[in-house]
Amino acid sequence: MSDAGLMITAAIIARDAEKHLPGCLASVAWCERRLVVVDDRTTDKTEEIARSSGAEVIRRAFDDFAGQRNAALDACDTEWALFIDVDERVPAWLKEEITLVLAENGPEAGYWIPRINLICGRWVRHGGWHPDHQLRLLRRAAASYDPGRPVHEIVQIDGPTGYLTTPLLHLNYGSFEELIQKQRRYAPLDADRLTKDGDIRMRSLLGAPAREFLRRYFALGGVLDGPMGLLMALIMAGYEFQVRRLALGGQRD
Questions:
Q1: Which residues of 205-244 are buried (b: 16+ CB within 10 A; e: fewer)?
Q2: Is the pLDDT of residue 1 over 50?
Q3: Rounded mean pLDDT of the chain?
Q4: To 5 degrees, how large is the angle CA 143–CA 191–CA 196?
Q5: Can you tell me the distance from the alpha carbon of 194 to that of 198, in angstroms, rounded to the nearest whole number?
Q6: In this predicted model, what pLDDT tens digit does every residue of 32-44 receive, in sequence order?
């Protein structure tokens, strides 16, 4: 049991995560349970590492990220679930804040946690990358993930939410190549969502990327991060272009 006497499951979804999983699991060793939902397409030692660390493992055919997270929620039998990605770490001071706030037993059904995003080893502070609040600490019975958001998942929660002040550490991208590869995996899922919503027009092929660049670089202060801020704004604008290109292509098929 967690040292505050609270029942918490650390829930992790993973695919080919042998690089990051040991550190991730070690950072939540204080939780009552550690549950890893492994994508059945995994080809490395992810499952072996999870089991050897004492974590519980569910091997599941991947449908989408929302489906994986809902499977993790369904498998939890503790009151609270803490979702953490394999490339994230829960520092000791965040553990202390979590245990203290849950011990108060307030009315909140969930808590938003800020994140520090390290990109290529650098803390990116602007452009929407900080404080980057994530709704990750969930009262299990009150939460589910929206099946209409297969990627960049959205929590549906029945009750009020609060905000923690201590951040998660996100080892976001070790290289720009890693960032681009991840975007290539996510873009088809986002494109499918846009196609299903039926709200995609040809003019958005250029308009959406332009708006994303202006939002990231100027409205959210990416300019303050210097060359890194410019590069990240361009990359995120490029992602919007790719999503809409795929969505429009799907509509023509």
A1: beebbeebbebbbeebbbeebeebbbbbbbbbbbbbbbbb
A2: no
A3: 94
A4: 70
A5: 6
A6: 999 999 999 999 9
